[in-house]
Amino acid sequence: MLRQVRDAVVGLANGRRQGEWLMPGGSWSPHEMPGRAMLRGGGGVVQVGYDTAQSHRAVYSAIDLLCRLIVWQMPFEAYRKSVRVDLPEIVVNPDPQPQLLAEHWRAGAFEATILRGYACGVVTDASPLGHPTRIHLCHPDALAWDRDRHTGAVTWKLGGEKVDLWQTGGDLWVAPAPRVPPGGVVGLGVLRYARDAIALGLTASRYASDYFGAGGTPIVHAKVTSRKDLDDDQIEVLRSRIVSATQGRQPLVTGSNLELDKLAVTAEDSQFLATIAANVADVAGFFGVPAESIGGQSGGSLTYATVEGRNLELLTNTVGAWMRWWAATLSALTPGVTLKLDPEALLQTSVRALYETIATGVGRGTPGVLTPNEGRAWLGYGRVDDPAADQLYLPSSVVPIPNPTDPITAGVAP
Prior knowledge:
Blueprint: H1 2-10, E1 38-41, E2 46-49, H2 57-72, E3 76-80, E4 83-85, H3 89-92, H4 102-116, E5 118-126, E6 132-138, E7 143-147, E8 154-158, E9 161-163, E10 172-176, H5 190-193, H6 195-213, E11 219-224, H7 232-247, E12 258-263, H8 267-271, H9 273-287, H10 307-331, E13 338-341, H11 344-347, H12 351-362, H13 372-379
Antiparallel strand pairs: 1-2, 3-4, 3-13, 5-6, 5-10, 7-8, 8-9, 11-12
Helix pairs in contact: 2-4, 2-9, 6-9, 12-13
């Protein structure tokens, strides 16, 4: 059974044998799971699903912002017992598809995790010790599970096929989101809890689109003064003539026995501008990003003096936790190697500010905390073969205070 799932993922030899959920791109057809494939919000007006949710500007922008910051702008670093080592295969080339980069793979896994609360995939290659080195990502809606209420054992199904986790000898990889509810199997996703807010935004946008799709025609009350009652056919003929003339921007010619009262709608009301603005801020809160970062308004008086200040706030409140999650998730696949993400790129504001920061670290009139070679490495430059470049700068005016327990500063060293 596991071989069938793996063949469908790796070879795709039988077309859409397991359904479109295993295809690496395009539109997804989620596995039939009541209450999971689609979430209804907004009083049943709009169905909020995995794909339809991202047609909401704030949802798409928030995910795109976090993906660009965490996946594309922050490089990984690998350490073994505090010593920098080469990046493992699961970081360098995790996807079995040759046209995709490692960043594409991580972006897909991150998107699924933040929306659904987990990422999942099928292990296609492993190290001699059995740890995954390549994983084909699957759509999160293809995964289902059931927990035995007596034993607590969890049964997993991927596209309707029973599978086991790679930790227990199977081929399934699951990465829960940072927040897992008590007794939960996977993490909490934004889509489940923000569905009403997302549905509200989609409904408001749809109303504005429909309004202007009709030519911006306001609602009109037509009254025939010469007749007390009209039959259905007469009402329909009159309505069609008015709609045809107003939508085509043609003059509407009537007799004195027809009165038209336009129900005025302001531009703000027709586009739900206030509702949409408030909704963007509401949705941004679910993702933990400032509304200003995705084109919204916070509604408060908080401003940032610099881009660095805003990025630092975002790093502290949201990005930092996701960085730790990524490092822990992939470190679990690389025993003996600790992975870290470098947030330096997020905090860089200008080349001048970066060079001034490095110069301060190396030391100019004050003791340095970086050697010149360490400063060059920070900027991406190579080392220089000068012994002084590996020495911390210490001004000649600075004299170490003798320490009786230190034979060097106490002057008693042999």
